[in-house]
Description:
E3_ubiquitin-ligase_SINA, about 300 residues, 7 helices, alpha+beta, six-stranded mixed sheet, about 15% helix, RING-type E3 ubiquitin transferase, 7-in-absentia-prot_TRAF-dom, single chain, elongated, zinc ion binding, ubl conjugation pathway
Amino acid sequence: xxxxxxxxxxxxxxxxxxxxxxxxxxxxxxxxxxxxxxxxxxxxxxxxxxxxxxxxxxxxxxxxxxxxxxxxxxxxxxxxxxxxxxxxxxxxxxxxxxxxxxxxxxxxxxxxxxxxxxxxxxxxxxxxxxxxxxxxxxxxxxxxxxxxxxxxxxxxxxxxxxxxxxxxxxxxxxxxxxxxxxxxxxxxxxxxxxxxxxxxxxxxxxxxxxxxxxxxxxxxxxxxxxxxxxxxxxxxxxxxxxxxxxxxxxxxxxxxxxxxxxxxxxxxxxxxxxxxxxxxxxxxxxxxxxxxxxxxxxxxxxxxxxx
Length: 307
């Protein structure tokens, strides 16, 4: 006999496309690792356990670890809160209506578990209590970086050596050694601003890598050019370095001095914060000279290590 409330006539058979944080990194190597994101794909993160309790905490739908509130049907089958909504309140195991019964015992058991970080294969060997694991992984220094190339929607992630090789091989980014630079940017039609000009150069300096960005974008209703530097490393290290940028012509110049932002911050976040050299288009065309119908900007700069 079905419990009071009836039997659901429909149940979700396939896994949802939404990927929860506990979907694993797949067969990632510790060094020179690239991972391509794919919505709804990925290997389940296996956690060492001698008693199999962690298997009870795996949601039967998304195969991710469950965190409170954990729900159960009248027959005791458990489900995470996100998937409870996806299956329209129907138990995917027995098809009975779920209701709002909490599995408090399983939530309590989880408190006693100690688990490894999901980025163990990338170098993190710390152990965490079950409910501390998620917070740690959101800030783990071994978590992969996103590709800093902003000219396309690139889903590649990886460690710094792998991303440097990826930028060179897959995006054809120019690579330079040295801590000073002198770059010339030319654009035939500078009146095309939105997504019209975008360039990236990678510098190897002090044994670290830096991304120099130059692009055109719309600042409100004003077309502008911007250039800024990003640090390929953790945000806790970015303040160890400084940089300056300069652009000018005809006896006038603009200068900028700042701290290279970590690539943990997205390209768009850095750009939209205006944390870099901002050049109004009219001034950029003045620096370019001639008939003001062609952009010819020379940006010079320097990177240094703070004492």
